[in-house]
Amino acid sequence: MNIKFDFSESRFVVTGATSGIGKKIATDLMDSGATVLAIGRRSERLNELKEIYKDKIVPAALDVNNFEALKSAIENFASERKINGSVHCAGINKFTPLRAFNWKDAEQIIRTSLYSGIELIRIISSKKITAEKGSHVLLASVAGIKGETGFTAYSAAKSAVIGAVKSIALELAIKDLRVNAITPGWIPTELTDSIDARYPGHIDTIKLEHPLGIGSVEDVSNLAMFLLSDEAKWITGSNIVIDGGYSIK
Fold this sequence. Notes:
The chain is of the alpha/beta class. The chain has nine helices and seven strands; from the N terminus they run βαβαβαβαβααβαααβ. α4 links the parallel β4 and β5. The protein is globular.
């Protein structure tokens, strides 16, 4: 059964919108009638989406760690109509083994996944920007609940996202705004491809650890669409794991 969502007249912000899960969520939202502020660092890819989606996309080429630029883009987007929600998919991952720990890399990883996600919701949830009954989703990872050897900073950042969502959800419930986390398992994207390229054979091991096999960006986007919709109006502060059984082994 194909579930169709209708987001006509709705407006969402999606970070990491130029590739992988973020791109899929952004395009699915636009295909469902929404207008999307698509945030990413690669302007050429945003322009490619603009060619396809025309007036359904507002591209913003910026680094989510530049909070001033992020705020400006969101305020400009909200000037036409208030925002119904967001999905924070921007993230980076680097190998950070304990004996060769790089604090600069760790800070960048944590800022991108956690701090910018918090700032994104902080900006949008202001009264002059948010629509009523909005919904926000932050992307975590199974690394945040199970751990991955050599990826201390990434695991810590994603675990912190899960914790932050619970507290933010409590604060925003009084405004009737929902906040949830999605925790995917291994999803083939440019990010995971780069890891596989650096560590040959790693992906073969990962596949064996997912009882239902490797997932897809479509799987994660379907869940995000549900959480953004009114069908999920009684769900907040939750971390929903979508990993083909990886975390239960």
